[in-house]
Amino acid sequence: MADSTHSSDRIMTDARSSLAYQQGGGRRVGGGSIGKGSAKLKWQHLAKKLVRLAAALAVILVGAMGFGLFVSALGFEGVMITLLLMIVAVFFFLRYPKMKMPSRADLTRGSLTQTVQRTELWLERQAPALPAPAANLVNRIGGQLDGLGVQLQGLDENTPAAVEVRKLVGDHLPDMVSSYTAIPAHLRSEQRAGGTPDKQLIDGLERISGEIDTVTRQLAEGALDELAIRSRYLDYRYGGPETPLGEVSSQEASLPPPGAADTALPPPAANNSDSGVPLTFEKDRLPTRSRD
């Protein structure tokens, strides 16, 4: 009887997990890159493949032409062999070598930009083992890492901010995911330590997502302040959003038009056509003081 009760509880737990899984979007199939950093690494790998393929095709063609010119005519069989070699080269160089996924230890190596890109690529590989809500959070974190990567450009990597970013992206985030994937699949929905591993993972990713957003805002504070200053200047110069296009603000309208007389200066005399101080001197000799 106890076994039957335990089995019923287990079935109900699995049913709740399945329902939450489907409500979260289910398993994504064939998803793309979660961020621009991982997409850039993929494109770099593909570009190297294409360069190798182009070199191999060039070697095959040059070899076939050289054989036809200096040895003997290729003929139908030679042309077919050349085409077959080109097909094999295309198949091989587009398929191999496989892209090497970064390991957990590789994430913190290199620059901060490389750490962000490798972490995105590593998260993509771990996503199939995560529940749907966590996978959605990983996608959101990928976009946040792109924004963080922009702010990291030009940042001194020896500053405390850079060190904290490396720990957050290269250590804390992967540790959270690795701790979850190390748990057997049939134990991830069991209640333990105040919650299930699924819920603990989702809560942890939520906190990390919020921390990434906070760090990005702190790093971008200077740019945000500059943008606010420029926005206030534009409001003063051209008016706010409510000012119709083609019109100027009240401050701008109060200014005199270009070329108008300055009202702060006295008007020139009516009978004096000359302006300024005369620079003409009399030609007579200057008077001299008489000596007694």
Automatic annotation (TrEMBL):
Location of region: Disordered: 242-292
Keyword Membrane: yes
Keywords: Membrane, Transmembrane, Transmembrane helix
Transmembrane segments: 50-70, 76-94
Biased amino acid composition, Pro residues: 255-269
Species this chain originates from: Croceicoccus mobilis
Keyword Membrane: yes
Protein name according to UniProt: Uncharacterized protein
Stretches with biased composition (Basic and acidic residues): 281-292
